[in-house]
Amino acid sequence: MNRLTQNLSLRRCRLGFSLIELLVVIGIIGLLVALLLPAIQSARESARRTACANNLRQIGVGLLHYHESLETFPTGCVDHRSFVDGGRQLAWSALLLPFIEQKSVYDMLDLSQGFDSPANAKGAAQVLSVYVCPSNPRDSMLVDGRAACDYGGIYGERLVSNPVFPNGTMLYSDPVCIRDITDGTSTTLIVAEDGQSEDMQWINGLNVFEQSYAINHAPLGENEIRSMHSGGGAHGVFCDGSVRYLLETIDVHVLAAICTRAQGEIVPPF
User: Fold this and answer.
1) Could you give the C-alpha distances from 152 to 197, 227, 259, 265, in angstroms and in order?
2) Are 93 and 114 in contact (CB under 8 A)?
3) Is 78 helix (H, G, I), strand (E, B) or coil?
4) How far apart are CA 94 and CA 75, in angstroms?
5) CA dihedral of 164, 91, 257, 189, whole degrees rounded to 10
6) Residue 151: which of 128, 167, 171 has the closest Cα?
7) How big is the CA angle at 110 (ends 156 and 206), to the nearest 5 degrees?
8) Angle CA 124–129–132, to nearest 5
9) Which stretch of DSSP H or E encloses residue 60?
10) Which residue in 20, 25, 135, 188 has a CA-CA distance of 20 to 30 Å to 260?
């Protein structure tokens, strides 16, 4: 072998990686992934949280359009079966459909019949992204064959009020209008996240609740204000259409005050 051939052979050998070099490269890549993954996850959650807030903004705008057209906000639940035997138990979120660009789904429903009527099965199974928080993991987007909902109407509060009475803005059978909200539309909740409920469907009037616990502190099975967002809080939409992120550390008296429409409280900044 002449010297030229020998040099070429050595160069070919040096073109590869040694095992130690390969392990070092793999280690560096692993370290970079470990450093970047939390940032990527945080960015994704930030995007999901923004999408959730946008859902509630659309709901808030729809509620104001509904009020402009009918001079009231939608009834929280029409013919709740706890009070009306065989009632329709239709939710505010079903009544709102034409005002959130879901007229085609609304036209699939027969609102003279119950939420679980076979006549409403096809429409009720339509999954609507505006009613679903993207941070809430689900095995299925259907609950008993009907599309899920992560947002509930505020019936009132029992954090500080006793006995309980319907002091919120989404009531059973009785619609509320802006003139009834003497506490102020900008400090009165109308809809909020309930991201860990197991039974809520946008057609079923069970997606109305009274707040009984601090945010994110209700036991499973209770419909309450809560979310799966990082940051310790949940979104709510107020009667003026504004959306705010409510921290779970909010004082319970302030939380109670923003869940009622006409208690006369002076609500401090929150």
Assistant:
1) 10, 12, 12, 23
2) no
3) strand
4) 10
5) 180
6) 128
7) 25
8) 85
9) helix 19-70
10) 135
Domain boundaries in the chain?
Answer: 37-258
Do 176 and 191 meet the contact criterion of CB atoms below 8 Å apart? Answer: no
d(CA 152, CA 248): 17
Q: What is the dihedral of CA 108, 114, 116, 118, to 10 degrees?
A: -60
Which residue carries 């979120």 as its tokens? 93
35-46 per-residue burial string, b: 16 or more CB within 10 A, e: under 16: eeeeeeeeeebe
Closest CA to 232 of 199, 193, 267: 193
Q: Position 106: which residue type?
A: Y
In the block, tokens 């035997």 appear at 85
